[in-house]
Each structure stands twice: as C-alpha cells, then as structure tokens.
UniProtKB/TrEMBL annotation:
<dbReference type="GO" id="GO:0006397">
    <property type="term" value="P:mRNA processing"/>
</dbReference>
<keyword id="KW-0540">Nuclease</keyword>
<keyword id="KW-0378">Hydrolase</keyword>
<keyword id="KW-0694">RNA-binding</keyword>
<dbReference type="Pfam" id="PF14622">
    <property type="entry name" value="Ribonucleas_3_3"/>
</dbReference>
<keyword id="KW-0507">mRNA processing</keyword>
<dbReference type="InterPro" id="IPR014720">
    <property type="entry name" value="dsRBD_dom"/>
</dbReference>
<dbReference type="GO" id="GO:0004525">
    <property type="term" value="F:ribonuclease III activity"/>
</dbReference>
<feature type="domain" description="DRBM">
    <location>
        <begin position="175"/>
        <end position="244"/>
    </location>
</feature>
<comment type="subunit">
    <text>Homodimer.</text>
</comment>
<feature type="domain" description="RNase III">
    <location>
        <begin position="17"/>
        <end position="148"/>
    </location>
</feature>
<keyword id="KW-0460">Magnesium</keyword>
<dbReference type="Pfam" id="PF00035">
    <property type="entry name" value="dsrm"/>
</dbReference>
<keyword id="KW-0698">rRNA processing</keyword>
<dbReference type="GO" id="GO:0008033">
    <property type="term" value="P:tRNA processing"/>
</dbReference>
<dbReference type="GO" id="GO:0042802">
    <property type="term" value="F:identical protein binding"/>
</dbReference>
<keyword id="KW-0479">Metal-binding</keyword>
Length: 253
C-alpha cells in the first residue's frame, strides 16, 4: 500500500498523533502519517480535504486490519488451545466482533484520538461501536505495515488476551440479552430492565456497572468499559441464576 509521505499535517494533528502513540503504547516503529490515516474517519476527510491536501479515510486500512486480526487470533487459538474447527471459529467470531473490538478500543483510550468531523463528534461518534471497532482494526493494519507481523501480533495478544481466554472459556457470549429476554418472557411473563449503577474512572477509561432487574429483584450485575459489555455480562449472570432457580441450568450458550 502506497502512502503519501509528503502529506502536510496541521500542528494539532501532529500533537494528537504524538499523544496517540504514547497513550496507546504503540511500537516506536509506527509511521505517524500512516497512523494519521488509521485514525481518520471518513467524516473528517470530507470536512478537511481540499485540492492542496488529499486525505485518506481509514476504510482501506480497516479492511486489511480485519484480515490481520483474523490471522493473529486463528494462529493463537491453534497454537495454544486444543479446539475443534467449529470451536475455534466460534471463539474467533466473538473475539473479532464489533462489540469486543469497541471494548478494547475504549480500554486503550482510542476514542480520544479518532479524527472526526465536528458533526460526527457532536453526535457521540467517539462512543459508536462501529467507529471504534473499525478504527481499532485500522490501527492493527498500521502496525502491520509499519513494523511487520510479529510486532502487530504481540500488540494484539497483549491487549486482547483477556478476551481470548474468556471467549475460549465460554465466559463471553454476545447475545445473552436476547437469551435472557426469551427466558423471562417464557418463565415470568416479564421483560428485564437494565439500570446503570455507576460510571467511574477518567473519561478515556470510564468503567460502567450495570444491573439487570426483573421487577424489584436484581438478577445480575456486570462491569465493562462500555455499557453494552456491562449489560451483556449482567445478562449472562442473570441467565445462569434464573435457570438455576427453576432447575433448568443446562447452559445458555
């Protein structure tokens, strides 16, 4: 992939990139102008491109990063776990999902460094799972191009090992909320309610605690770096508890 090294960055863009390299703990070999492309949402390109300055959005890098991530996760699962092809496919799908990648991005503080248009920023673009996950994959591609496979593999495993282990161990299921709704409708004729208990930590690493309730009873509490993950983890606990209470805990996966 050819990248234009003569691209002129603004002072603010340069400062953001320097902060991003430091805060995201990126390898020193990462090319800053390629990183700029990785962090550029299409809305920013539309607002800031002109005849003297041609900008690229991160869409092409996101495409490559998706493939890089798939290879890294596939290799790690193959080399470290004795799983069937189906089990590896299921785990890889969970680990590489939009929900998990957005969670990783928020944990790293990537949302602070994405270049967005003013309009997209005002519409909470930095918290959108699609933007976060796509940008995370673009960053993976940036590391791969700048530094090679071994560096990007090390970076991905370092920041995603917890999610890999949880996915393999059956501790992450991406649709516990739907499963819980089905259970409660069938058994109690009620719908669960999700309540935000608190949000703590600095803005770039805010952690959410969510409770899922059925009537006045709290069935589960989950915590995560996004409300979506916290809700899913709370729903997982609730599924297990609710099925236990009716003597039908044969697993919710």
């Amino acid at each position: 992939m050819k990248y234009e090294d003569n691209l002129k960055l603004t002072l603010q863009e340069e400062e953001t990139l320097k902060s991003a390299k430091k805060m995201l703990l990126l390898p020193a070999c990462v090319n800053e102008k390629l990183l700029f492309e990785a962090l550029c949402h299409k809305s920013y390109v539309f607002d800031n491109e002109n005849i003297q300055r041609r900008l690229n959005s991160n869409e092409r890098l996101e495409f490559l990063g998706d493939a890089v991530l798939e290879l890294v996760i596939s290799e790690f699962l193959h080399n470290n776990y004795y799983l069937s092809e189906g089990e590896m496919s299921k785990a890889r799908a969970i680990i590489g999902s939009e929900v998990i990648l957005a969670e990783v991005a928020l944990k790293l503080g990537l949302d602070n460094f994405i270049f967005l248009s003013k309009g997209e920023d005002k519409q909470s673009g930095r918290r959108k799972k699609s933007i976060l996950s796509d940008t995370m994959e673009a960053v993976f591609a940036c590391i791969y191009i700048s530094c090679g496979y071994e560096k990007v593999k090390k970076y991905i495993i370092k920041n995603m090992k917890e999610y890999i282990e949880n996915a393999v161990g059956g501790n992450i299921f991406l649709d516990y909320k739907t499963r819980l709704q089905e259970i409660t409708q069938e058994k109690a004729k009620k719908l669960p309610e999700y309540v935000l208990l608190n949000a703590s930590g600095p803005s770039h690493m805010k952690r959410y605690k969510v409770a899922v309730k059925l009537g006045d009873e709290i069935l589960g509490i989950g915590e995560g770096f996004s409300k979506k993950i916290a809700e899913q983890l709370a729903a997982k606990i609730a599924c297990e508890k609710f099925l236990d209470s009716v003597g039908e805990n044969n697993g919710v996966d």
